[in-house]
Amino acid sequence: MNRAARYAGGAIVAPRATARALVADDDKVPLAAVYVIGFAGLYSLTALGLYLRGWLPLSPPLPIDPHRWYLYQTLYTIPVAVAAVGLLVTIAHASVRGLGGRGSLPASLVVLGLGGVVPWVFFTWMPETVFAVTGHAPWPTWVDVTRQIVPAVWQLALCTVMLAVAHAVTWWKSGVAVLAGSIPFAFLFAFTIR
């Protein structure tokens, strides 16, 4: 667990070096599972807290009673996260390989699993845990809009840098691959996670 935490911190301050270390690590798949399932598990607990507090989602896109939205989200967050990251990894990996990348699927999995989680820890999980604990948002509405845009941009940049290292390609090839994989990732989350 300490190694997983070190890599997570490294992704923030030194993403290229962290990507090189992750690619060389023998435990790529277990590490990716820790990041994706661990984050989704924590987010599920936060959704449960929001449900218990009576928090209602803004404009739920699925035909779920808004009063029960967070109860259901508690149950489906982990499978949705695994599916979303699976789509991101599969599409980005196939795309970057098509553009000349030489990295392995486990390398793509671990760098995109970490890169797809770190930004959202700070901008969704932490603030929404504050909501769940306090029962209110201690900041203006415009902050909520910002906290959806910043992590999306950060995720794209972080995944692009780390995938480029994992596959020894230029940043633009990696960026095209990450963008292609991020479209279904974002679509799935947009309809299921509030």
Quick description:
The chain has 194 residues and is mainly α.
List the helices and strands and how they pair.
Elements: H1 2-13, H2 15-24, H3 28-53, H4 69-98, H5 105-115, H6 118-134, H7 141-167, H8 171-192
Helix pairs in contact: 1-2, 2-7, 3-4, 3-5, 3-6, 4-5, 4-8, 5-7, 6-7, 7-8
Count of distinct structural domains: 1
How many DSSP E strands?
A: 0
Low-confidence stretches: none
Helix count, DSSP H or I runs of 4 or more residues: 8
Overall residue-averaged pLDDT value: 93
Structural class: mainly alpha
Largest sheet: none
Order of helices and strands: HHHHHHHH
Q: How would you sum up the global shape?
A: elongated
Report how far the terminal alpha carbons are from each other: 28 Å
The Cα radius of gyration reads 17 Å
Q: Beta-sheet strand percentage?
A: under 5%
Helix coverage percent of residues? over 70%
Structure explained in plain terms:
The chain is an all-alpha fold and 194 residues long. The chain has one domain (2-192). It has helices at residues 2-13, 15-24, 28-53, 69-98, 105-115, 118-134, 141-167, 171-192. The longest helix is centred in the middle third of the chain and has 30 residues, at 69-98.
Task: Give short descriptive properties of this protein.
194 residues, mainly alpha, 80% helix
